[in-house]
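Quick one: structure tokens for this chain, please?
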Amino acid sequence: MQYDLEDHPDLKDAAWIRAANRRAKRDIRRQRRQARMRRHGGKIVSAVALAVIGAVLFGFYQAGKFGEVSLPEVKLPQTGVNVEIPFASTPAEQWPEGEKGIVVPDGNPAYEQVRQALIASRMDPAMINDHKPDRFLAMLAPDVREHITKELSGWTTRLKQGTRLLPNGIRVSGKMTLGEKDGYPAVTTDYVFAYAFEPPDPEKLLDQMEMVAAVREKVTYMITPAGLWPADADGFQYSIACQAAKDGFLAPQFTEPSKPGEGLPGDNRKYFSVDGQMPTENTCD
């Protein structure tokens, strides 16, 4: 007579089952103490792995060698994210830190003038942490300052209150080119700024991207005698807290519960690249 595996008479032996369960639980607890999960590759041991373990135990039991069995090493996934290397396994992992990521093509003073504006608007602690735009506004032509002041969220990065970045928590990649607009020299910038936020409970996160937010901004700055004149701006934010973005601030995913329709569309590498067109997807409803 043939039986399905779960109906086999030998597997109904209560003593054998209790011993197998105790041994399996003891080994799994030991292995869990040795592992920490960095990504959400698995919060549980796979059913296939458990089936294999069960088959091995059954074979030893049938052969009368159950007392000699030692469970195979099961590699359990790690829990939490890596706050020591916050950009690990993200597209920004190898990018330069902070200001080092904004490299001027040559010694033209227009490039350095615009470089300082990017630093003041996207990386200066007074701007991103304290929401004080004075340094950035001072670089602009007086006639455009009022407009920029009313639309700061589109021209600057300001972190949501209550959040803060990890040490060396900004990575930058991009480029700038020199041209002309309305009779003035003009520098077009296209950069992605990646920000790594400090999570209150790293162990509860499942993916590095839950604490990394990315901002891509393409802006042309005209170099006028009165100062910089920003124009032709386009931008995109990725892996963000949506309500914070609607309020004009930047925050990571872990600060807000996810909603249907929100998330990380497709391959995230394209959202960290300035080689293609500006993304048009809306990751927030």
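Residues 14-33 form the longest helix (20 residues).
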